[in-house]
Structure formats: structure tokens, C-alpha cells
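Submission checklist for the structure archive. All mandatory fields must be present; incomplete records are returned to the submitter.

[x] Identifier: PCDGH protein
[x] Organism: Crypturellus undulatus
[x] Residue count: 709
[x] Sequence attached
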Amino acid sequence: QAAQNRAAAEHIAFLALLLPLCCRAAPERLRYAIPEETGSGSVVGPLARDLGLRPADLPTRQLRLLSESGRQLKYFAVSADTGHLYVSERLDREEMCGDSASCSVTFEAVVQNPLNVFQVDVDIQDINDNSPVFSKASLDLEIAEWILPGARFPLEMAQDPDVGSNSLLSYHLIENPSFRLKVKETSSGQKQPELVLETALDREKQSSFQMVLTAMDGGSPARSGTVQIRINVTDANDNAPVFSKSTYEARVRENVPTGSLVLQVRATDADAGSNGRVSYSFSNVPDAVRAVFSIDIDSGDIHNVGILDFELRNKYTFAVEATDGGGLSSHCQVQIEITDENDNAPEVTTLLVTDTIPEDSPPGTVVALVKVHDADSGENGKVWCELEGESPLSIVASSGSSYKVVTASALDRERASEHNVTVVASDRGSPSLSSRATLSLSVSDVNDNAPVFEEAAYSAYVSENNAAGAAVLRVRARDADAGANGRNARVRYRLCEGQVRGAPLSSYVSVHSETGALYALRSFDYEEVREVGLWVRAEDGGAPALSSNVSVRLLIVDENDNAPQVLYPPPASSGTGAGWTGVELAPRSAEPGTLAGGSVTRWLVVAVAAVGCLLVAFLLALLALRLRQWRRSRLLSASSGTLRAVPASHFVGIEGVRAFLHSYAHDVSLTTDSHKSHLGCPGGSCCNTLPAAPPPDKDAPLLLPEEPS
């Protein structure tokens, strides 16, 4: 045992040196070897190092082991600290692989960030832990005394679950002058012991024999098993049964009903009476075969009594014995091959790399790993996968039976915040079988949408003399994003910098950062400000934040808050009233040159324009007449008190004319909320208007009467 352990240790050390070279050549497949019966916790190999991983990378790369079917691995595990592959359960090669010549456990090592899948094979090496065993404690034979020397009598074979050099090697028989042992190798490679008669038997001299048959295996040290052979010498039965074939073969579908006829063996015996009556039985057949097949003792019909499953075992080889009434027997080999049927749907196992993916993930981002496994063989076991329905995801083959679900196009959370896709795995059998697995993927938000105002521009009418702090209007913007706790969609409002009549915009209006309500911070005066233009910015809570602006116009509506004023004549109390020569009544608003009314109907505008045109025509005619008279007159003397209120700078000369009207003003004041105009006569007017006629209390004319020619 120590030598065997030393050899296994040397083999493991050799593999440890060889594996890095293999991993560099084919990094997606690793192979280890370990003897069976290795205790739990024993290290198989440095898996992480052979995969090119450092111990510091293990927490982020998340090294995991998965079986080929996608289930949790049973016999092996990986250390999260060192990345070593170690044994997690007792390894019994005979339990795991039966009598198979080779035994290995294949699984996959999965690492993430980025996602990679590596195939790992661990060969389970056989050790000599089982002794050869006979199914019976003793073998009873009946041999007729007339049997000639050289006759052969097959004996039961010993069973040794070990394989290779540890399997059954030889048989030994305690020396006996009448018999010797001969070992024959069958077509299946098994060693069949046979008892050969050396000398003629005489029942009268010796009616029975007892011997011990020993079976030895090839292990080191060797193990053995024994069986007692008891031979009873009978009277003559000179013909043994003879099978029609030495080997019978049959092919059976795995899904045949229980009780179906699988095969019929037939043997004949030339003897008559009870010596010629043949009965059939299994010879040296393991219990696993007896659990599946039965043989009719009289007809030799072999039926299946258990379920035939190609995936569990695809071939059975055993011996059938035909025995006549005299005790003579013969043997034949039976080989039954189980053919595969497409009776297993693919198994689908999904492993989500992440259940939430940002919407700005590039195409090709891996979101899930899909493992498929079909227990059938051939075309029935070939599986292909596809995604059912429309989605921005696709499935691509990875390695072996693994597939990756990746993003095929850009994601948009605002269109679809969750994607539910169905993975359909179908085999290539006829008819095809399929399985489905559903993946649910949530799309997380990124700040890729700026706030959008509900209107392209806002405007509002604000009456002058409004109360300070009054709400003017409300702007509203919406953001299609969401983000964590709605952060990307949280909109805040603020004013863009600006000025109104040289003052900061923020001194006129303010905006509520949460609601978007716009407030007037002061009382507006139409005569000072008629319109306020500003920009409101909406900004979301993303990082970096996105924003958009909207134009807002505040139109100030005039109110009748100013009484009309008479610009001429100046009031008597002023110093300029002494030279007053005419009257012009012009109601004005508080701002010169501006009508008091804010809204004039169209017909009134037309009427005012017509009156203005007639007045201009009249003045032109009057001016022409006065110029004509002036040519024939002379200017009043400077001592005349008539023009002492008019400064000389207000006269201009045109072709000798010394005096004419310097300016003329005609203002009409109307209001939108009054049906008639009110004329006021305020005192103190300084407009330079030449009066058209002298006041009643003045008699100084502007021009002298025309002298007769």
C-alpha cells in the first residue's frame, strides 16, 4: 500500500509539472489525476494557478465549479482563498464508474469579469481496494463416471470490481491427481476457469471430491478470494447439451415495454429421458443483470424484467448455462446491445451573470451563462439553443455545451425596463424534444435624457401694480430617466442670468426649484417695463447632470393708473404763462409720447389716421397762405409784447420767412377700460407750440394785416 501511495504521489507530482505546459497550450481544458479513496480535503491541484489566476484575483473573478449538466459538483470543490482544487467527498471508483476501464469526472470551471469557461477532467485512478469474490460459497458439480479424461467443466468466475492491473489476474487450484485447472479467456476479455478431468473416474472407488479454487488479482499486494468445489460422481450421462451458437447477439430499443422478448437461446441434448431434458439458467451473472433480464428455465427465452436505459448502460454481456437431467451442462455467451431512443429532453440550466444591466452597456455584454445537457447519444444528444421572442438579446455558443446570452443591440430603459426571454434548447432527434428556461433581466437607468419642457416657450400676462411675490405662471419639465431613487428624473429649476433695465433679473422674478412656479418679486409698472424676457433652466439630478432651457415672456398689462395731463397752456402759476398765445390739449400718459390706452380697436386707429391726414393737409394749406401773406407784410416790431414768450431761437428763416410754426404736437389718449376720454388741463406746459389763435384776453396778432397796394 505504501508503494502504491508513493507511486500515486509521484504521478501527481509529474502531472503538477506537466499541467502548466498543457494549460499554456490549451488554456480551456485541464486534466488532473488522483487515486480513489483519497480523503476529503485532499488537494487535487492548483486550479487557479493553472488557469492563470492569482490569489488576489479570486474574489473578483469568482471561480466556481459546475458539472456538465449545470448542477453543483458532487466530488470536488475549489478553495475560495487559495484557488486549489480539493476533494469534497470520498472517491470510490467502483461506485462512480462501475467496471469501466477508465474513470474520470469532467466538469467546468467558470470565472467572471470577464466570463470564461474551462473544462477540467479529473482521472480517478484505481487502487487495489477490492478482493476477488465468488457469488457462491461453494460450487457443486456432478460428473458421470464414464466421462473421459480431458473433459472440461466451466467453473464460476470470480468478480473483482477493480480494473487494470488490480483486476482479476489468475486462478489457482489445490493439487488433485484427478483434476487440473485451465483458464480460458473469453471473447469479452474475462478469464474463465475450467476444471479439466485428468484421469477416469470410478464412482465405486471415490464418489466425491472437494477442492478449493483461489482467485488472485494483480494488485500489489495481491488480494484473493476462494470458493469450495464439491464434485459428485454420478452414473453415465454421455451427452451434454449443445447450443446452436456459441455467442448470441441482440439489439433492443431502450424504451421497449417490460416483459418483452429480447432473445431466445436453444440447446439440444442427444440423450433420452431425463438426461436429455435441458434446462436453462444464468451462469455467473451479476445481480445488475438479473435485475434487468430473466430467462425461462424450459424455453431459454430471455425477457426484460426491468427498465432498459441506454443512458445508464448500453450493453450487457453474460453467460447462459444449459443443463440436462444428468447434470451435464454447456455454456454460451449472450451480448445484448441497447440502442438509444430520443427519450430525454435537453436539460437547461441558467446562471445569471447579473440580473440588472445598465442601459448603456455595449452590444456583446454577457448577461447569462446557459448550460445544456442531453443524456441521449448521437444525434439525439446534440442540442442547439435559441431565444424565443423579440428582444435586444441573443445567444451564442461558448464552449462545449455552454452558451452565452449577450446583448445584441443597444438597450433603452425608457422603452423597456425589463426583458423576459425564453431559452429554448432542442435536440436533433426525430421527433425533436425541447426544454425551456426563462431569464428575467432588468435594465438599470443611466442619465441619458435631458429634461423636456411641456411647451416650447411660455408666456404670461401680468397686470401692472401686481402684488410682490405673486405667482405668475408655472413651467414644467419631465425627464424620462429614473435612476436610483428616481435621481436622474428629479428636475430642479433655476433662472438663467440676465438683466432688466440694468438690474439683475433675479430682482424681478424668481422660480421655485422644485415646482417650477415663477414669482414676481416686485410690482411691475407698465410705464417703466412692458415686457420681461427670461430663460428658465431645468436640470436633472444625474451625474453629470443634463439640462434644457425654455424661453419665458412676461407681458405687462397696462392699468388705468395715470390721469390725463394738459400740456398746454402752462398753468398761470408758472413763469411761462404770460406769453401763452394758443391752446393745445393733449392727454398723455405718464411716459411722454405714449398713449394711455393699451388696446385700440382697428376702426378707431383708422379714424385717428384719417383725422391726422386731414389735419396735416389743413396745416399745409394754412402755411402756404401765411407765407403768401408774409411776402407782402413785415414782421411785428420787437417791442410788441405778443411774442415775448417765444424765444428767438424757435424761429427759422426760409426764403426770408422769420416766423413760422416750429413744432406741432397732437396727442390722443384712449383707454381700454373707458368708453370716453377725459381731458385734463394741468398747469405748466413747456412744449414749443405756436398757438393758432390768441387767447381772449390777448389782442396782439402774430402777423400785421396786409397793406393795400
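[x] Structure attached
Curator remark: Residues 602-631 form the longest helix (30 residues). The chain has five domains: 2-125, 138-339, 347-444, 452-557, 562-637+649-709.
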